[in-house]
Design brief:
The chain has five helices and four strands; from the N terminus they run αααααββββ. With 138 residues, it is α+β, with helices and mostly antiparallel strands. The chain has one domain: Nuclear Transport Factor 2, Chain: A (Roll). Helix 1 packs antiparallel against helix 2. The protein is globular. The N and C termini lie far apart (31 Å).
Length: 138
């Protein structure tokens, strides 16, 4: 029930972003979409986060039910921006994610690099780096 409510809130946020005036700066739009992304990850709405991944990336690397079920085995404790830069027109943001294994309650830290691309046709930012690897070889 909670996840459904959270998903509805995230969809409403995305709808509001889509309805924003076209005069909003790309920087403001980036801040808003990054906030929506980080909220989805922090609250465990990985299906909602998947919707913010570039459609080309989703098509090339589709997530399976098994992939999504792995995300249900973890709880996110922290999501911290450790720096960002512009690389070839894309925005790159380094993230540190605190991950708790729901089975063992062991917590660890994972580093993740987000890469955001602005889509002029859709007038939105897309995450091109895909979902974070919270297991890094485990």
């Amino acid at each position: 029930m909670f996840k459904l409510a959270l998903r509805c809130v995230l969809i409403a946020c995305l709808a509001m972003l889509a309805g924003c005036p076209k005069s909003a700066s790309k920087g403001t739009a980036l801040d808003e979409i990054q906030y929506t992304w980080s909220a989805a990850i922090r609250w465990g709405d990985f299906e909602g986060a998947w919707g913010l991944v570039d459609p080309k990336v989703r098509e090339a690397h589709p997530m399976t039910d098994l992939d999504f079920s792995r995300f249900k085995q973890v709880q996110i404790s922290t999501y911290r921006d450790t720096g960002s830069s512009i690389v070839g027109g894309d925005v790159v943001r380094d993230i540190e994610i605190g991950v708790i294994n729901r089975n063992t309650l062991a917590e660890r830290s994972v580093r993740y690099r987000e890469r955001w691309r602005y889509d002029e046709a859709a007038k939105t930012w897309w995450l091109t780096s895909g979902m974070p690897d919270l297991w890094q070889g485990e």
